[in-house]
Each structure stands twice: as structure tokens, then as C-alpha cells.
Amino acid sequence: MVRLSCGIVAAAVVVCAAAPPSFGEDASPFRAYVDMKAFMEHVLTPAATIVWSVNATVIDEKGEHDLSPKSESDWERIVSGAATLVEATNALTIPQRALDPQWNVYARKLAEAANKAYLAAEARDLKAVAEVSDQLDGICAACHRHYGVE
């Protein structure tokens, strides 16, 4: 609910300004709507997988297929994945998600690497995206080890 503070400025003009929402002393304006497992499964992992795909190769009955971006639409997919990943790191820092002080350190490292991936993808720099992709993998693995998740 938005409270309005109104005042008459001139004869027929009423000016209203939205009052800031009130939050309790310990309340945050941010809220985690899905649990961490769902957040990882439906937000972080799909976005990271798109970035990781720049290093991927598939081997099937027809041979070996390099999945690195080759067309403008391939690059746009990488840009979108990296943008989603970097913005999703903000959701990792919602207070209800932070397990301990180290949590935000991992989130910040992930954000920095994901931002590098985004900038490299925007520049269509395959080598830089591939290098950052490896960094992302290391950051995720370190966090998962720290919290006992595999």
C-alpha cells in the first residue's frame, strides 16, 4: 500500500507525493520468493550454463560440434545469459539468503566475474568470455564446496 501526502499548492491544484513505504526496524524491502534450490535451478544455473556454453563441445554420432557462438543470435544469447547472471547476483544478497558473512563474498566474486562475461560478450570477445567462463566455474565450485552442496 502506498501512502500519499497531499497538499494544496494553488486554488485548484492538489499535489501528492508518495510517502516511502514503512518497514520494520529489521525488515528489508527485498524478499526471497523461491527457496535457494529453486533459485539455483531456475535462475542461476540456466544463466551460467549459457555463458559456460562458449567452452562446450558436443560429441555425437555425427562427430564433434563446437558450441561457441558463431552468429549474431548466438552472441545475443550469451549476452542475455551473462546479463541475467550478473543481475541475479543481487538476489543472492537478499538478507534471508545470506548464510554467513562469506556468502556475500562469494556473491560479489560471482557478480564481478559475471559482469566481465557480460562486457566481453557485448564486445564479441570469445577468448575473454571463455576465460571468464572458467572463473565462473571456479567461483561456483568453491561456494558449493564451502556450503557442502554438490
Low-confidence stretches: 1-25
State mean pLDDT (0 to 100 scale): 85
Query: Roughly how many Å apart are the termini?
Result: 41 Å
CATH topology: Four Helix Bundle (Hemerythrin (Met), subunit A)
Query: Which sheet architecture does the biggest sheet show?
Result: 2 strands, antiparallel
User: What fraction of the residues are assigned to beta strands by DSSP?
Assistant: 5-15%
Describe this structure in words.
21% of the residues are buried. It is built from four helices and four strands. It has a single domain, classed as Up-down Bundle (Four Helix Bundle (Hemerythrin (Met), subunit A)), CATH 1.20.120. Helix 1 packs antiparallel against helix 2. Strand 3 and strand 4 form a beta hairpin. The chain is of the alpha+beta class and 150 residues long. The strands form two sheets. It has a two-stranded antiparallel ribbon with strand order 1-2. Strands 3-4 form a two-stranded antiparallel sheet. The longest helix is centred in the C-terminal third of the chain and has 22 residues. The N terminus is likely disordered. The chain is globular and about 55 Å long. 54% of the residues lie in helices and 14% in strands.
Give a quick set of tags describing it.
150 residues, Four Helix Bundle (Hemerythrin (Met), subunit A), two-stranded antiparallel ribbon, globular
Explain the layout of strands and helices.
Elements: E1 4-10, E2 13-18, H1 36-52, E3 57-60, E4 63-66, H2 72-92, H3 101-122, H4 126-146
Antiparallel strand pairs: 1-2, 3-4
